[in-house]
Amino acid sequence: MDEQNLTVRGVSDTARWVAYFRAQETQRPDALFRDPYAERLAGQHGFHLANTLPDGNKHEWAWVARTYLFDQFLSRAIQDGADLVVNLAAGLDARPYRMNLPPTLQWVEVDLPDIVSYKEEVLKAEIPRCRLERISMDLSDLSARRQLFAQLDARATKVVVASEGLLIYFTTDEVASLAQDLAAGEHFGHWIIDLASPGQLRLMQRTTGKQLSEAGAAFKFGPPEGARFFTPYGWQARDVQGLLKAAAHFKRAPVELLSLLPEPKGNFGNYPWTGVCLLSKR
Ligand SMILES: C[S@@+](CC[C@H](N)C(=O)[O-])C[C@H]1O[C@@H](n2cnc3c(N)ncnc32)[C@H](O)[C@@H]1O
Fold first, then answer.
1. CA nearest 76: which of 235, 243, 189, 195?
2. Which of 105, 126, 151, 159 is the most buried (most CB within 10 A)?
């Protein structure tokens, strides 16, 4: 692959970048999770992106805490009887292969066509632990996604949706519209998201965000209301976990950031907060 092809070519390349952090975590003797597929999935391109994007290989504690919290929330939802996981913007996530899952569980991954076909190719010899399907779709296509959500709603009794690392690439209006479309599904009971505060969004826009923006993958969403943003669209925050707090719990938070704890109560504003939220249908 030449240098040109190793730069960010679009939003789907961010999936390779995230896989890099899962590969790094997997190497640690004290790993909080192990993803034996991540190194292969990230590939040369993912490692190159992480090591060349501004701050691209920093803040691994945050990426690891995010994956850990999504794992926890998903496991809990499945234990509580979810029979369908819908992973929107699944990227190179390998949870259906690496998590302990009931074989009857339905798991649907949705992402853009290029990354779906790349992943199919890399994982073609592997066997998922549940009933996995992949769907190539641009989630900005309103009619296609509404049709998909209606079909999924009809074939499950308890749906949990995950969108890890997606909403930040959407505008406020696009997030509101997606929230409404998901809330329309009668059986769509839970939605796990990650969220940045306005202060964190600005920090990210000034660092890695510049180059991603040039590649058409700008960071856009960091609502001042935090998880309460979703209330008018049918979703209530049930559990909100900051990444720094989670990382501190595992003694992974950088010492220089510990003075930021405890997190402020109420709106985060300029406070550099990112976290994972479990939303439930109101
Ligand atoms: C940062 S990656 C996260 C991937 C994965 N969830 C993870 O955490 O490893 C963002 C993902 O969003 C996907 N994405 C962005 N915009 C999308 C859209 N309009 N429709 C479908 N997928 C989209 C990208 O292709 C990419 O896989």
1. 189
2. 159
